[in-house]
Amino acid sequence: MRKVVLLIVLSLQCFTVSAQSLFGDVKLTHLQPTEEKANWVRKKQVTPKYPISLAKKGIAGCGIFKVVVNDEGKTDSVELIQSVPEKVIYRPSKKIIRKWNWVQAKNGNPVAEEKLIRLDFCLGGNSVEEAEAICLKQSQYRCSV
């Protein structure tokens, strides 16, 4: 019995595949209005998750989106203004943005708000911290071709 188990363990080692870790980060930047001046803010201020579809293809880039939040705090529309690579990140980004819940940032009557936001999708580095540093640097560059 021991010989069979040992044989199985040794044969499995021959077929092991070394998986390379891929580190990614997403950075959200509020362009207009700034987060401090906004009527609506995201209810949960967590970093959006890197879309699996982009990570599997090794796609990094950025996109600038016009997001309309209605007077009830629901996302009415998401429009791609520009992106690098062109149009590839629109669909996964739209899925992310549509899931956000909005709450009023200021007291008063709720009014619809048009927002301009930027999402940077970054890959690289040997750790989460390095991926975050890469994303911070990438977010300083223009998001256009």
Give the number of domains: 1
How is the CATH topology named? TolA/TonB C-terminal domain
- Count helical runs: 4
Q: Structural class, please?
A: alpha+beta
Uncertain parts: 1-18
The helix/strand series, from N terminus to C terminus, equals HEEHEEHEEH
Compute the separation of the termini in Å. 63 Å
Any idea what the CATH architecture is?
A: 2-Layer Sandwich
* Radius of gyration based on Cα positions: 21 Å
Look at the structure and name the CATH superfamily: TonB
What would you note in describing this structure?
The structure is a single chain. By secondary structure, the protein is of the alpha+beta class. It is built from four helices and six strands. The protein has helices spanning 2-14, 52-57, 90-98, 128-138, and strands spanning 24-32, 40-42, 61-69, 75-84, 102-104, 113-123. A hairpin with a 5-residue loop joins β3 and β4. Keywords: Signal. Residues 35-130 form the TonB C-terminal domain. Residues 1-19 form the signal peptide. InterPro entries: TonB_C.
Quickly list its features.
4-stranded antiparallel sheet; alpha+beta; TolA/TonB C-terminal domain; signal; TonB_C; single chain; Energy transducer TonB
Blueprint (SSEs and pairs):
Blueprint: H1 2-14, E1 24-32, E2 40-42, H2 52-57, E3 61-69, E4 75-84, H3 90-98, E5 102-104, E6 113-123, H4 128-138
Antiparallel strand pairs: 1-6, 2-5, 3-4, 3-6
Signal peptide: 1-19
Protein name: Energy transducer TonB
Domain TonB C-terminal: 35-130
